[in-house]
């Protein structure tokens, strides 16, 4: 039986509509729009597209969105100074520093400098620590998007075995925390995991966040499992062009799973939608004076 396709593009429109209403209410109450500042260092073409999309998406829900593009040669201290200026700016509610940063810049030094109250990526150690302590504040966008897709699938998480492949601070670890908070039994796999296929076959919920095109094959999946594919991999399409594929061999796995997210049109659009939601959340917390 073919799996149900979890349409992230459509669900993201719903989330954006929710945010748009929230922004209208925020403006009525506080007389200003929530503000998102996106920082891009360097000229990676994919990052340019993504950051422009983030700026556009924030404007579409009525927020102030602004993109700062700095040359790859920008000194670390100058990037830091920009972050500090935005930290001090009352009209800025959210700050996102697009990753990866150029090699000459220490990523951690920049990310740690972002005011935790404006950290709409949820990457600051304060926010990561609060999530791990069961007191979530600003939570990473991609994991929030994954959880909303699982809610759409109506998969019972309590007592389910969730296997997360990947242990990054951006996706793997925080999505594992959110699944744990929903009372799933969570296993985190990574590059040193032995017999990944057999482990994944135990999963009722399988989240792939690896960055290896179509690593997860049909024989990794228990019949009826729900599969969330976070991977975004650009590969040769054979006709001189490239195409996007996930970390899951979609056609094969769709024959076995009960539900699956496509790439594109799955987790990606949800990430952007939750970035907007996090900006609204941060704006409310700041305006109410709780942070
Ligand atoms: N859709 C979206 O919104 C987003 C998509 N992405 C995409 O998701 C993917 C993962 O991103 P991210 O978490 O940042 O990536 P990272 O490279 O930071 O982490 C990848 C993880 O996968 C593990 N891994 C690598 N190879 C294997 C393997 N052969 N078997 C098992 N585990 C393996 C690594 O293990 P180890 O720790 O041992 O090295 C690591 O934990 C990428 O394709 C990225 O583009 C990322 C963010 C948002
Ligand atoms: N500070 C920071 N925060 C991030 O959240 C962050 C980051 N840096 N660096 C890069 C990764 C990757 N990421 C994506 C977001 C949306 C899509 C997305 O919208 N994808 C569309 C397709 C886009 C296309 O066609 O290229 C989709 O899957 O349908 C993809 C990838 C966020 N990241
Ligand atoms: Mg670097």
UniProtKB/TrEMBL annotation:
<keyword id="KW-0560">Oxidoreductase</keyword>
<comment type="similarity">
    <text>Belongs to the tetrahydrofolate dehydrogenase/cyclohydrolase family.</text>
</comment>
<comment type="pathway">
    <text>One-carbon metabolism; tetrahydrofolate interconversion.</text>
</comment>
<keyword id="KW-0368">Histidine biosynthesis</keyword>
<feature type="domain" description="Tetrahydrofolate dehydrogenase/cyclohydrolase NAD(P)-binding">
    <location>
        <begin position="140"/>
        <end position="285"/>
    </location>
</feature>
<keyword id="KW-0658">Purine biosynthesis</keyword>
<protein>
    <recommendedName>
        <fullName>Bifunctional protein FolD</fullName>
        <ecNumber>1.5.1.5</ecNumber>
        <ecNumber>3.5.4.9</ecNumber>
    </recommendedName>
</protein>
<keyword id="KW-0028">Amino-acid biosynthesis</keyword>
<comment type="subunit">
    <text>Homodimer.</text>
</comment>
<keyword id="KW-0521">NADP</keyword>
<feature type="binding site">
    <location>
        <position position="232"/>
    </location>
    <ligand>
        <name>NADP(+)</name>
    </ligand>
</feature>
<dbReference type="InterPro" id="IPR020630">
    <property type="entry name" value="THF_DH/CycHdrlase_cat_dom"/>
</dbReference>
<dbReference type="InterPro" id="IPR020867">
    <property type="entry name" value="THF_DH/CycHdrlase_CS"/>
</dbReference>
<dbReference type="InterPro" id="IPR000672">
    <property type="entry name" value="THF_DH/CycHdrlase"/>
</dbReference>
<keyword id="KW-0554">One-carbon metabolism</keyword>
<keyword id="KW-0511">Multifunctional enzyme</keyword>
<dbReference type="Pfam" id="PF02882">
    <property type="entry name" value="THF_DHG_CYH_C"/>
</dbReference>
<dbReference type="InterPro" id="IPR020631">
    <property type="entry name" value="THF_DH/CycHdrlase_NAD-bd_dom"/>
</dbReference>
<dbReference type="InterPro" id="IPR046346">
    <property type="entry name" value="Aminoacid_DH-like_N_sf"/>
</dbReference>
<dbReference type="Pfam" id="PF00763">
    <property type="entry name" value="THF_DHG_CYH"/>
</dbReference>
<dbReference type="InterPro" id="IPR036291">
    <property type="entry name" value="NAD(P)-bd_dom_sf"/>
</dbReference>
<feature type="binding site">
    <location>
        <begin position="166"/>
        <end position="168"/>
    </location>
    <ligand>
        <name>NADP(+)</name>
    </ligand>
</feature>
<keyword id="KW-0378">Hydrolase</keyword>
<comment type="function">
    <text>Catalyzes the oxidation of 5,10-methylenetetrahydrofolate to 5,10-methenyltetrahydrofolate and then the hydrolysis of 5,10-methenyltetrahydrofolate to 10-formyltetrahydrofolate.</text>
</comment>
<feature type="domain" description="Tetrahydrofolate dehydrogenase/cyclohydrolase catalytic">
    <location>
        <begin position="6"/>
        <end position="121"/>
    </location>
</feature>
<keyword id="KW-0486">Methionine biosynthesis</keyword>
């Amino acid at each position: 039986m073919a799996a149900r396709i979890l349409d992230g593009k459509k669900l993201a429109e719903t989330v954006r509509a929710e945010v748009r209403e929230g922004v209208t209410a925020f403006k009525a109450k506080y007389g200003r729009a929530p503000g998102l500042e996106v920082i891009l260092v360097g000229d990676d073409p994919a990052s340019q597209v993504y950051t422009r999309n983030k700026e556009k998406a924030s404007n579409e829900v009525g927020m102030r969105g602004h993109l700062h593009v700095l040359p790859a040669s920008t000194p670390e201290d100058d990037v830091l100074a920009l972050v500090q200026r935005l930290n001090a700016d009352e009209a800025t509610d959210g700050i996102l520093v697009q990753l990866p940063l150029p090699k000459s810049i220490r990523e951690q030094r920049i990310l740690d400098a972002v005011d935790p109250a404006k950290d709409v990526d949820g990457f600051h150690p304060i926010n990561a620590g609060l999530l791990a302590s069961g007191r979530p504040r600003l939570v990473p966008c991609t994991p929030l998007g994954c959880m909303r897709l699982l809610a759409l699938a109506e998969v019972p998480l309590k007592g389910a075995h969730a296997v997360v492949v990947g242990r990054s601070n951006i996706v793997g670890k925080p999505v594992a925390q959110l699944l744990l908070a929903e009372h799933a039994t969570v296993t985190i796999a990574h590059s040193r995991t032995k017999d990944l296929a057999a482990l994944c076959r135990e999963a009722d919920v399988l989240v792939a966040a690896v960055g290896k095109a179509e690593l997860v094959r049909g024989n990794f999946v228990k019949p009826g499992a729900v599969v969330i594919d976070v991977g975004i991999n650009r590969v040769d399409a054979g006709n001189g062009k490239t195409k996007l594929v996930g970390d899951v061999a979609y056609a094969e796995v769709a024959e076995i799973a009960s539900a699956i997210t496509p790439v594109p049109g799955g987790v990606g659009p949800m990430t952007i939608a939750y970035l907007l939601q996090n900006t609204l959340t941060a704006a409310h917390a700041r305006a109410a004076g709780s942070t």
